[in-house]
Write a structure and sequence with these properties.
- The complex is a heterodimer.
- Chain A is mainly alpha-helical.
- Chain A has 13 helices and no strands.
- Chain A has two domains: 30 residues; 234 residues, no CATH class.
- The model of chain A has no long low-confidence stretch (mean pLDDT 84).
- Chain B has a single domain, classed as ABC transporter involved in vitamin B12 uptake, BtuC, CATH 1.10.3470.
- Chain B contains eleven helices and four strands; from the N terminus they run ααααβββααααβααα.
- Chain B has a two-stranded antiparallel sheet with strand order 1-4. A two-stranded antiparallel sheet of chain B has the order 2-3.
- Classes of the chains: A mainly alpha, B mainly alpha.
- Chains A and B meet through α5, α10 and α12 of A and α4, α9 and α11 of B.
Chain lengths: 318, 292
């Protein structure tokens, strides 16, 4: 690894944010309400960054991200509920199991849906999310609609170091993949899959790759979520959850990992800060989705840019 | 034997509601090449408009039904003008995300106005049930089947016999060429959204007369299932949507009765996955080759 400016900035950002969290916690500057947010922020960062790999970089809309999260959460929770191990080892193994289980499902779903693109793929991922939900509802070992409860809280705010490390690993792995040769192949599939195919990039292979990696980290995030909240039900991971993650990715900017992280922090903290406006939260999300798309894609942005530039030129001319 | 006939009739009745909704998806897809994700929520708006008309404004049933259809048609046109029209040249992903945004917006507006608690609703259809040889068919089911049949016949006549209908077919065939022939493409697109939304209103009315309870999310599941029906029949294909809706309704009600109630949703979505894998163009659809 070369120690160029980018790496230095990254390392500094990681160290600084960790020190900041630790100082805030140790000095008791955060009340209960805010300390309870630390782990959900980490979970949302992982979910958003992993969805960004699929939606932002691969360019395929996945509406089933909550489904992968639920598989991870259930697999991890079933593991910790049924084994008797020290909490540290148990949660680490649970994360690996949850991630792998989600990745396996990501692969199983990814292989058939490869043939589809765009709208169809989005709907099929939605359908798979719903199928996972109703199967979890029907199975007996997942306790049906009542879900799993009394999951040991291995990832409450006291374990913020663990969550922080896992979130950092997620971000680093995904951003390194994106910067790698494979990542450029994934982006080429997004930009023009026919051209990508014609220069020998195996479109389906890279689609699966992105899908499986995204599912893996969603599964790990699910495990952390389950051990933070303590209770999971099939309805926790419905279509709305997938949309919430999508809102984070879209607001942060599709194809921008930095953006996803910032949006995840803001959108997780904001509802807590604006307690009174809780009813309005989803309404604001939906308006934000529409406005962002209209602003970015309908040419308004270009027009505004053009106007600013021309006025600048006029001033320069004076 | 009697049981199976009853299930088939049930399936036919849910299936015809799906078919009405699926027509909206398929027509919009045929004309605008986009999946109108908010279509399911138009059903919800139609249902609430009927509730407002009947219970709050004390209108007679016929006037309330008309009100609900008009509200939905206007809403459909407005959504298209505000949210989808500026994005006609944008990548499909952007349009899809906008449509999801609109769907959420409608749901949350309804949530703010009417709260999340389900509102019980007395059916406006007062038709006595009919019994044939030990089989009882409820009045709502009969009305649903008859209304669907009439709507489909009218729609088919409209598309195939009128000038506006052939303009619609022309736009779906080739937008550029249609414009050169003097067809106002924007007006046709608005018209399509209006008709699709009006059909969704009809479906919404029939739906709450059957289930008799109003929730802000009531349109989401029938919306997605109707989409499955549209894909099953071949998206963009009007007879396909009708066929797909009925087939899906039958599959669902048989799965509910003979396999498992909890898994019936999973089976319906499983059908979608299988159709897309085996015959992505659907039962009656044509496959389009994509060019660079």
């Amino acid at each position: 690894m070369k120690w160029n400016k980018k790496v230095v900035v990254r390392v500094l950002a990681i160290v600084l944010s960790y020190v900041l969290i630790t100082v805030l916690l140790r000095m008791g500057l955060l009340n209960r309400q805010y300390t309870a947010l630390l782990v959900p922020i980490g979970v949302n960062i992982m979910l958003a960054v992993s969805l960004n790999l699929v939606t932002g970089f691969l360019g395929e809309l996945s509406l089933g991200h909550a489904g992968f999260m639920s598989i991870g959460a259930y697999a991890g929770a079933l593991f910790t509920l049924n084994v008797n191990m020290p909490s540290g080892i148990s949660i680490l193994l649970a994360m690996i199991i949850g991630g792998v289980a989600a990745a396996v499902f990501g692969f199983l779903i990814g292989v058939p849906v490869l043939r589809l693109r765009g709208d169809y793929l989005a709907i099929v991922t939605l359908a798979f999310g719903e199928i996972i939900k109703s199967v979890l509802n029907a199975l007996s070992f997942t306790n049906g609609a009542r879900g799993l409860s009394k999951i040991p809280s291995y990832t409450n705010y006291e374990h913020y170091t663990l969550v922080f490390v896992v979130a950092v690993i997620t971000v680093l792995v995904i951003s390194n993949i994106v910067d790698s040769r494979h990542g450029r192949a994934v982006c080429s599939v997004r930009d023009n899959y026919i051209a990508a195919e014609s220069i020998g990039i195996s479109v389906s292979r890279f689609k699966i790759l992105a899908f499986v990696i995204g599912a893996f980290f969603a599964g790990v995030a699910g495990v952390i979520y389950a051990h933070n909240v303590g209770i999971i039900k099939p309805t926790t991971f419905d279509y709305n959850k997938s949309i919430e993650i999508l809102v984070i990715v879209v607001l942060g900017g599709m194809g921008s990992i930095k953006g996803s992280i910032i949006a995840a922090v803001i959108l997780t903290a904001l509802p807590e800060l604006l307690r009174g406006a809780d009813d309005l939260r989803m309404l604001l999300y939906s308006i934000a989705l529409i406005v962002m798309m209209l602003f970015n894609q309908s040419g308004i942005r270009e027009r505004i840019k053009g106007r600013i530039e021309s006025s600048r030129k006029q001033k320069a001319g004076e | 034997m009697q049981n199976i006939v009853e299930q088939l009739i049930n399936g036919l009745s849910t299936g015809s509601i799906y078919a009405l909704i699926a027509l909206g998806y398929t027509m919009v897809y045929g004309i605008a090449r986009m999946i109108n994700f908010a279509h399911g929520d138009i059903i919800m708006v139609g249902a609430y408009a009927l509730y407002v008309g009947v219970s709050l404004m004390n209108l007679p049933a016929a006037a309330a039904i008309l009100l609900s259809i008009i509200v939905c048609a206007v809403l459909g046109i407005t959504v298209e003008k505000v949210a989808y029209k500026p994005l006609r040249k944008a990548p499909p992903l952007a349009v899809l995300i906008t449509a999801i945004g609109v769907s959420y917006l409608l749901q949350n507006l309804a949530l703010l106005i009417f709260n999340a608690t389900p509102i019980p609703f007395q059916s406006v259809i007062q038709v006595p049930s009919v019994s044939i040889g030990g089989l009882t068919i409820s009045g709502v089911t009969i009305v649903t089947l008859v209304v669907t049949l009439i709507s489909m016949v009218l729609l088919t006549l409209f598309i195939n016999q009128t000038k506006a209908g052939s303009a619609m077919r022309a736009v779906s065939e080739d937008k550029g060429a249609a414009e050169l022939m003097g067809i106002n493409v924007n007006r046709i697109i608005s018209q399509t959204f209006a008709i699709g939304s009006a059909l969704a209103a009809v479906a919404g009315i029939l739906y709450i007369c059957q289930y008799q309870s109003l929730r802000p999310t009531l349109g989401a599941l029938p919306g997605i299932k109707a989409f499955v029906a549209a894909v099953l029949g071949g998206i963009g294909n009007v007879p396909g949507a009708m066929l797909g809706g009925i087939v899906l309704g039958l599959i669902e009600s048989i799965a509910k009765a003979y396999i498992s109630t909890e898994l019936s949703d999973a089976i319906v979505f499983g059908v979608l996955v299988i159709v897309l894998l085996v015959k992505p163009s659907g039962l009656l659809g044509k496959l389009r080759n994509e060019k660079v």
